[in-house]
Predict the 3D structure of the following.
Amino acid sequence: MFDISLWYFRNSNILEMREIDLHGLTHNEAVSKAEDFVLKESAEAKGGAFSCKIITGNSPKLQIRIIREVIDKHNFDYHSTPYNNGQLIVTDVLI
């Protein structure tokens, strides 16, 4: 059986991952910018796989808002990395 998560992690270097840094913004500004950014990245993928990085800093409240108001709202998936809890990796592929 094909395991998409293994393929994704082994081949993630072939996908250009753009990022947005939300440091210095209010939470409302950050959520709005994150939504614009993720939707733009998704549209530019033209139906293909995409991933992007949202740098939130160490604010669990902001991360929860972005997850609820952006990622869940638009049916994307995400994960955080064990080496940096201040960022979210957003993708259209369920991992």
Summary: Residues 16-79 form one domain. The longest strand covers residues 84-91. The mean pLDDT is 85.
